[in-house]
Amino acid sequence: MPDRICNDIKVFYEIDKKGNQVKSCQRRYSKILHAPLRLAKNARIMITNNICVADGLANGVTGRIVDFIENKYKEIVRIVIKCDSPSAGTLHRTSCQHCHNRDTVCVERNNENDDKYENSSTDSSSNKQLPLKLSRAMTIHKTQGLTVDELILSTKDLFGCGMGYTGLYRNKRIKSLFLKDLHLEKFYCDEGVGG
Question: Which CDD domains match (predicted)?
Answer without folding.
Answer: SF1_C_RecD
